[in-house]
Amino acid sequence: MNSQSIDKGNDFDFGRTSAEYSEYRDIYPKDMYDKLISFGIGKKGQKILDLGSGTAVLPVNLCHTGALFFATDISENQVKHGRLIVDKKEIDNISFRVCSAEETGFEDNSFDVVTAVQCFQYFDAEKAAAEIFRVLKPQGLFCKIFMDWLPLEDEIIAEMEKLVLKYNPLWSGNGFDKYRYRYPEWAEGKFNIETLHSYDTSIEFSKEAWIGRIKTCRGVGASLPDDKVKEFEREYCELLNKYTEPLRLKHQIHIEIYRSVKGR
Does the structure show a pLDDT above 70 at 228? Predict the structure, then answer.
């Protein structure tokens, strides 16, 4: 996968990180899922399409609600590891499909909700929005979520970004300030914003879990050769020696819920 707007067009593939992704990327706090439920995402009986699902982190954490989930990803390896997790946990309300967000292959008006967690920036926004609009039922919901670390407020994160850039100067996933919402062009004529919720939180990690999480990021495991990933890991382990566990790292979670204008 590549995009000229991301990492100056450098190739990346999260499928290269799937084994560690399945172990270290289930990082969203419980209160985020509680908020989603309070906003109407995950009601019993809802059919929910999760785009860019990776190893099905969101469906696995919301499956107890009684909703029926369809986890999709463009990476066969991500889907394979998602299935392994679901089989191990004996979850029976999550199905999988390998497909792009822009062309899912599902029928029109199939879903009550579509979700996209930490992935919409990788889609062709206009094409993905058209596909989401097509597969949603009239008045259906599209929930877009992301969680950003805050390097301008957290020394550990700032140091991590500096090290990633040492190994991958093309990486553009750094230097984020707090998000400021603006109604997007891709939503025009298709969706009205219904819920907008941002909040700051500190996510707790062991050093092992944080290193694992960073190794699965776009700038490291998804793009660097294996020998460079190992070099990065050794150097980052040394860098973290001066900090005590657990690490409490500052993040911002941003939730946008749009309602389809279809049927109005």
Answer: yes
42: Cβ–Cβ under 8 A, 6 or more apart, which residues?
Answer: 33, 36, 48, 62, 65, 67, 113
State the DSSP string of 101-167.
SS---PPTT-EEEEEEES-GGGS-HHHHHHHHHHHEEEEEEEEEEEEEE-TTT-HHHHHHHHHHHHH
- The amino acid occupying position 28 is Y
The rounded radius of gyration (Å) of the Cα atoms in the chain is 18
Is pTM beyond 0.85? Reply is yes
Residue 263 backbone class (left: φ over 0; alpha: ψ -120 to 50; beta: rest): left
Sign of CA dihedral 35, 36, 42, 43: positive
**Average pLDDT of every residue of the chain:** 96
Q: Please choose, from the candidates 146, 106, 120, 130, the residue with its C-alpha nearest in 3D space to the C-alpha of residue 260.
A: 130
pLDDT at 40: 97
H or E element: which one contains 255? Answer: strand 247-260
Degrees to nearest 5, angle at CA 257 with 251 and 260 = 160
Q: Note the Cα 246 to chain centre separation in Å.
A: 23
pLDDT computed for residue 2 by the predictor: 55
Q: What is the pLDDT of residues 65-109, one digit of tens each?
A: 999 999 999 999 999 999 999 999 999 999 999 999 999 999 999
Length of the chain: 264
> Quick one: tokens of 142?
């599209």
| Dihedral over Cα of 82, 87, 90, 93: its sign | positive
